[in-house]
Amino acid sequence: MATDRLVALEGGRSEGHQRLVDAAGGDEAAVRWLYRRHVDAVFRCVARILGPGDGDVEDVVQQVFLAALDGAERFDGRSKLSTWLVGIASRKALDAVRARSRRGRWSKITELVGLGRPAAPPDARHDSIDEAERALAVLTPEQRQVFVLHSVEGYTFKEIQEMTGTGISTLHARLKAARARIDGALEALDGGTR
Amino acid sequence: MTARPNHESVAAALRELPRGPDELTKARMEKRLLAAARAGETRPERGRGPWLAAGIGVVALAAAIALWVRAGEPEAPVARFEVRDVGAAGQRGTLEEGSVLRTGAQEEADIRIADSRVHLAPGTEVRIAHLSPERLSLELTTGEVEVEFHPRNRGEEHLDVTSAHARVEVVGTVFRVRADAAHTEVAVSEGRVRVVPRHGEAPRFVSAGESTEVGEARAAATEVAPAEELRTGEVTEVARTTETEPRPESSESGSSEPVLAENEPTEPESTDNGAVTPESPAPRPPSARALLARARAQQRAHDYPAAAATLEGLLAGRAPAGVRAEALVLLGDLRLRDDPAAAARAYEDAIVAGSGASRSNALFSLARVEERRLGDPGRARETYRRYLQEAPEGALAAQARAALCRLGDTTSCP
Question: Distance (Å) from the C-alpha of residue B19 to the closest C-alpha of chain A?
């Protein structure tokens, strides 16, 4: 489970919290520590919400770490630092998707390709991943967020609630809708291409 | 998927990709983050109330003006790179202005921008100094690049390569630039380039089949062998034109190595524009750099015994420190297959002889041998740490950290 791995990587909350405070205070070594410790998890979360081949992933990852430095005082140490960062990552990724929707880019691309592929074609190594990416593209940003965090990353609803501020019943409903939408899209894809 | 795919198989497939950014991407992102943190970049400030709406309006107006002004301008080019072990598939990504790309002792890389290509030989460091539709500027710190520049709009697109000694301005051509601490050599295969020495000498044009060399006369004169002193003095002021016929060295190696000192004139004759044309080529001992180029060509031709013999000959004589370090690293690479201990000794000698990127590459190569061929994880850890101390943001730094993590240094684990 992704959660287990993140807990293992955490290594000690107090150290992580202290490093965050140091990093926010301008300590470059602490910035490096924070980045190296958590970049994989943050990148993974952002890439799964935006799509791995998306050209904005790196920018959003950068925004996540800068936001963490800027808002370090709001981390109270009660949750895991990794969970807090992934929460920021999911919100930033969601913001990016919404911004794109506002610009009409996302919907235009979706129209162009029928089911809607990610903005940039994923660097897929397997058909199954390519197919999964196509399926994910049919979700709304909010559905995508909860599907990625719960079904892919393995976070609990309580953790996702802490990350996003969304109520658990809403998260349940979004996940249910997401699953139904993916299944429907895959059926359509199956009928259309096989 | 064998069964009908559903949301569970979608989730399972997504868990496989992506696991995280590749090492080069990580290093690039880390550098960007540190730069942004240093500059005090943060998210937009909040709580500005009514000012926010006004601000948005101003920004929107500015953006509209900018869009109007920029309408019709070509999009910024994208510099894509691939770094790989020699002859193998490798890591890919994009570079931006300010990015530095380094190749290890056994790596090579390509940067592609539109229809043009820049090939980085092993042990090369290049910085993208400027990247725009009109101009691409590369800074060659050390090593060798081969450039194929094919502008879509000739005369409107420019490329230049700057080293410590010269700037090479390109019109549209294929050429090679090699730089170390003492010299910069330029050899042109197609078209023509303009070489502008950085220390006051007059610019010169170099055409297809010709090569030239620019160096630091006073600094280099203390390092080179007596037989090369004249040559070093010459090259700071002149462009040496060489014959366009295939040279013996090239035909032996089957490569297109830049034409070097062996057949150069002993008494160069100045032309009107200050260039020197060889009139009566007299045999001279090959320079250390020529020997290194020959050894590389022999290595590429898989003639390893000949390459080793060439390098031993080079190392037996006098050579600039940078060339000596490069030769030792190459010798280490050649020894690696049959005698890892000898390879390690060569890398150690290169560490002593070299500086900058060549020294860092030697450190990394030594650490790899200690880890993988000599089975000495303790020494390997120490050497990887030395590498990271010297090149904490190098392209191999992430690999060094991964190796340290692999060797039990948990503080280096991501």
Answer: 6
Its ipTM equals 0.72
CB contacts, 8 Å: A143 with chain B: none
Name every chain B residue with its beta carbon within 8 A of the beta carbon of A127: 1
- Mutate: best of B4, B8, B10, B82, partner A, most A CBs <10 A: B10
A vs B, Cβ pairs < 8 A, gives: 122
Q: Are residues B246 and B378 in the same domain?
A: no
Q: Does A132 touch chain B (CB under 8 A)?
A: yes
Alpha carbon B58 to its chain's center: 44
Gap from A78 CA to chain B (nearest CA, Å): 23
Across the interface, whether the CB atoms of A58 and B29 are under 8 A apart is answered yes
CA distances, A3 to each of A76, A98, A161, B412 (Å): 20, 27, 15, 21
Report how far residue A110's alpha carbon sits from residue A137's, in angstroms, rounded to the nearest whole number: 8
B259 and B325: one domain?
no
The CATH number of whichever domain residue B253 belongs to comes to 2.60.120.1440
- What secondary structure, in 3-state letters, does B204-216 show? EEEECCCEEEEEC
CATH of the domain at B356: 1.25.40.10
Is beta strand B183-190 parallel, antiparallel or unpaired with respect to B211-215? antiparallel
Measured CA to CA, the distance from residue A52 to residue A118 in angstroms comes to 9
Domains of chain A: 2-193 (1.10.1740.10)
In a domain, B368, yes or no: yes
d(CA A33, CA B396): 18
Structural domain for B236, as ranges: 79-286
B128: β partners: B138
Contacts of B34 in chain A (CB under 8 A): 28, 31-32
Looking at the structure, do residues B253 and B324 belong to the same domain, yes or no? no
> Is the whole-model pTM more than 0.80?
no
**Do residues B282 and B339 share a domain?**
no
Judgement on whether residues B101 and B245 belong to the same structural domain of the protein: yes
Q: Which of A43, A67, A152 sits opposite B14 (nearest CB)?
A: A152
Domain membership flag for residue B7: no
| One domain, residues B354 and B269 | no
Query: For chain A, what's the residue count?
Result: 194
In three-state secondary structure terms, B318 is coil
pLDDT, tens only, B145-167: 888 777 666 566 778 888 887 88
**Digitized pLDDT (tens) for each residue of chain A, 194 residues in all:** 333 323 333 334 457 888 888 888 888 888 989 998 999 889 988 888 887 667 788 888 989 999 998 888 888 777 788 889 999 999 888 888 777 655 444 334 333 333 333 333 333 334 555 666 677 778 888 888 898 888 888 888 888 888 888 888 999 999 999 988 888 877 776 654 44
Looking at the structure, tell me whether residues B131 and B274 fall in a common domain: yes
Would an 8 Å CB–CB cutoff place B18 in contact with chain A?
A: yes
For residues B400 and B335, membership in a common domain is answered with yes
Decide if B244 is inside a domain.
yes
